[in-house]
Amino acid sequence: MRLLSEIKGFGPKRLEALEKRGIVTAMDLIERLPTGYRDTTSPLSPAQMTEGTTACFEGFITGKPTLHRVRGMQWVSATVADEYGKIRCMWFNQSWMKDRLFDTQHVTLYGRAVRKKTGVFVINPTMEEPGSIIPVYAPVPCIGQKPLRDAVKLLLDEYDAPDVLPQSFVQRHGLMDRRSALEAAHFPMDFETLSRAKERLAFEELLLFQAGVAGASGVRRDALPLNVKAHWIEEFFETLPFPPTNAQRRVVHEIALDVQKNKAMARMVQGDVGCGKTMIAFCALYLCVRAGGQGALMAPTEILASQHFASAVEMLAPLGIPCGLVTGHMTAAERRRAREAIASGEWRVIIGTHALISEGMEFENLRLVITDEQHRFGVRQRTMLEGKGGSPHVMVMSATPIPRSLSLVLYGDLDLSIVDELPPGRTPVSTRIVPEEKREGLYGFIRAQAAQGFQTYVVCPLVGEDDLDDPDVRSAAQVQRELSEALAPLSVALVHGRMNKREKEETLERFYAGETNVLVATTVIEVGVNVPRATVMVIEGAERFGLAQLHQLRGRVGRGSQESWCFLRAEPNDRLKTLVSTNDGFVVAKKDLELRGAGEFFGTRQHGEPQMPALMLSSDSRLLSRTREAFLEVSRNDAYMSEYEAILKAAKYRFERSGAYFARN
Predict the structure, then answer these.
(1) CA-closest candidate to residue 195, choices 614, 627, 622
(2) Could you give the CA distance from residue 626 to residue 642 in angstroms, rounded to a whole number?
(3) How far apart, in whole angstroms, are the C-alpha atoms of residue 442 and residue 187?
(4) Sorting pLDDT into bands at 50, 70 and 90, what band is 118?
(5) What does the mean pLDDT of the chain come to?
């Protein structure tokens, strides 16, 4: 198979653009599967393009296309009609379409019909040739869809690599061979064959992911057991201002049993926002210290680490446990003092950010490592913190609800504890869908909440005007300007991922301190601080977010005893109504898995995510169980040892380039 540089038209500029997307070799390009397909085999009438329909349609341009300019944006509009009806089309930031379209022209277009304030439109439809199933690839700057398709077709014609999976395994499980699956995934002749190709590639991806996780964890490490006394748990519970839930008690006892073994604990504690995982973590740290060890808790942001530290001081200091905080913005003197206190064992519980794994940070007797918001850390970062101790017990926490079947695949190297009960007194968040015509009423509600001393989050899907592709979607910068005027004299701040880390955290700190009434943000606040006075969450362009992500954002409010609200700014639809009907994150996650596929969940893994987005093409949750059973079969049955070794080798080759896997071997 030829090099990418040997493909006609792939010069230095295009090769650089591909490299920025992680595409360096010909195989990299082949394994970047289409993110979608355009079926132009049976075009619809414009009259059939009703709200929510994504399809190919054909008709005639009626009248002269018009170029519009409003608020710095520009778009071309035209009407497509046939004998049965018509539909209006809009092309944003494509002014050249005005010259490409003309009255009475017959066109075949592909797009999605959406409802706007003035009716139903198809936004940015593409012009297509009828009669085929056309692959659509993730955009690459400087390279259009046709050059990508042509390059992939050329490389597939030369494809001669052996199958990644053993032939006996492929035949036993009734899978397509890899080359056929890749060809059908890129250029399907029909949707039945495409479905089989997706199944084969998703099966492979899930199987190798599990093998990669198994290779990373290896044999469970030996560890010194912690001599925990059962009555210590009750002593800790008695100091709490509230009784623990049955779920918290169960998980704490599971942890206590784990740390008393001579094999290192590796446990995931998963639970919905507000279920009380932090209390479980502090109880585990208390047991560790009582047994003579040091414990460390690593959080993804400084403000979250600081909040955990404040809680630790409140909860653990009265029990005689000295706690310390380590962040990246300490002065040289503070850093020196922290290192001394940790190395000498003066600090028994250490809370911090990535600074905990920085060079020169040595622990006196690290016996328990806890990472909060596990999906924000990669496997490599987790193992680096483990490496700071001899062989510490490990606990990871996640507030991202994931169906159990998917958890077994994502975190197959970890035992799983699910905190499936909320503490009493936690007020459920009331969720409502708010269309555009009710915006002014929403602003009035925010003002009324502020008058009572409560705060509001407003989350937007985009940062600035440069990101906009639809005039009905507001950017965070635009909303912050509008709200500053509409809600004056309330203070309205803006935070987003493009700000430098210090500026971002200072903005969050002011909101946490109650100095800001309204915080306009991107999803940077999805995992963040506990702000008890925040009672309102507004999510602009809610239809652009996945259900699981919307649920995470909703969890930023309702942290106190006051009634709290989440307003989804969008036109009502059945998908969003799931959030209105339930506050159970696991119900939401299950629905999201059914609607969008496992790829969305794999995308939360920061390092070593699968090379091929096959999972984004397959939402069949049964495949998770099938691949889990297949992996357990080959890993536990001596008759399939050769297959198991071949699969482990394939997994290692695929994932070790990221540096995330096999770090412990």
Answers:
(1) 614
(2) 20
(3) 48
(4) confident
(5) 85
Task: Using alpha carbons, select from 403, 428, 416 the residue that is nearest to residue 270.
Answer: 416
Residue 165 and residue 630 in contact, taking contact as beta carbons nearer than 8 Å = no
How many CA atoms lie within 13 Å of 204's alpha carbon, on the beta-carbon side? 28
Instruction: Give 178-193 as a DSSP string.
Output: HHHHHHHHHS-SSHHH
Beta strands in 144-298 (DSSP E): 266-271, 294-298
Tens-place pLDDT, residues 521-556:
987 665 556 788 999 999 998 988 888 788 888 988
- Cis preceding-peptide flag for 532 (omega within 30 of 0): no
Token pair listed for 642: 């050769």
How confident is the model at residue 113, as a pLDDT? 92
Res 620: pLDDT:
54
Element spanning 58, H or E: strand 54-70
Nearest Cα neighbor of 248 from 424, 421, 425 is: 421
- In the prediction, which pLDDT does 281 show? 95
The neighbour count for residue 37, using CB atoms within 10 Å, is 19
Q: In whole angstroms, what separates CA 609 from the centre of its chain? A: 11
For residues 299 and 353, the answer to whether their CB atoms sit within 8 Å is yes
Give SS3 for 279: helix
What is the helix, strand, coil percentage profile of the chain, to 5? Answer: 45, 20, 35
Paired sense of beta strands 323-326 and 119-127, if any: unpaired
Average pLDDT over residues 218-231: 82
- Helix, strand or coil for residue 90? strand
Q: Phi-psi region for residue 142, left (φ > 0), alpha (ψ -120 to 50) or beta?
A: left
Q: DSSP E strands: which ranges in 499-587?
A: 518-521, 534-540, 564-569
Residues 6 or more apart whose CB falls under 8 angstroms from that of 246 comprise 421
The answer to which of 63-67, 451-455, 540-544 has the lowest mean pLDDT is 540-544
pLDDT of the residue at 615: 47
In this prediction, residue 601 carries a pLDDT of 41
pTM of the model: 0.66
Q: Which burial class, exposed, middle or buried, applies to 2 when counting CB atoms under 10 A from its CB (0-12, 13-18, 19+)? A: exposed
Closest CA to 585 of 573, 593, 597: 593
Distances (CA, A) of 655 to 211, 245, 607, 610, 631: 10, 40, 10, 8, 17
Tokens of 596: 């969008």
Higher pLDDT, 400 or 610: 400
Q: How far apart are CA 271 and CA 586, in angstroms?
A: 9
For residues 208 and 203, give the distance between their C-alpha atoms in angstroms, rounded to a whole number.
9
145 φ, ψ to 5°?
-65, -40
Contacts of 172 (CB under 8 A, 6+ apart): none
Give the pLDDT mean for 469-487. Answer: 81
What is the distance in angstroms between the CA of the first residue and the CA of the last residue of the chain? 33
Residues 6+ apart with CB under 8 A from 375: 398, 400, 604, 605, 606
3-state secondary structure of 224: coil
Please give the pLDDT value at position 656: 63
**How does pLDDT run across 230-267, given as a tens digit for each residue?**
999 999 999 988 899 999 999 999 999 999 999 889 88
- For residue 389 the two structure tokens come to 């101790």
For 135-171, what is each residue's pLDDT tens digit?
988 888 889 899 999 999 999 999 988 999 999 999 9
Rounded to the nearest 10 degrees, what angle do helices 145-157 and 178-186 cross at? 160
* Structure tokens belonging to residue 623: 């495949």
Greatest CA separation for the chain: 84
Collect all residues with Cβ–Cβ distance below 8 Å to 193 and sequence separation of at least 6: 184
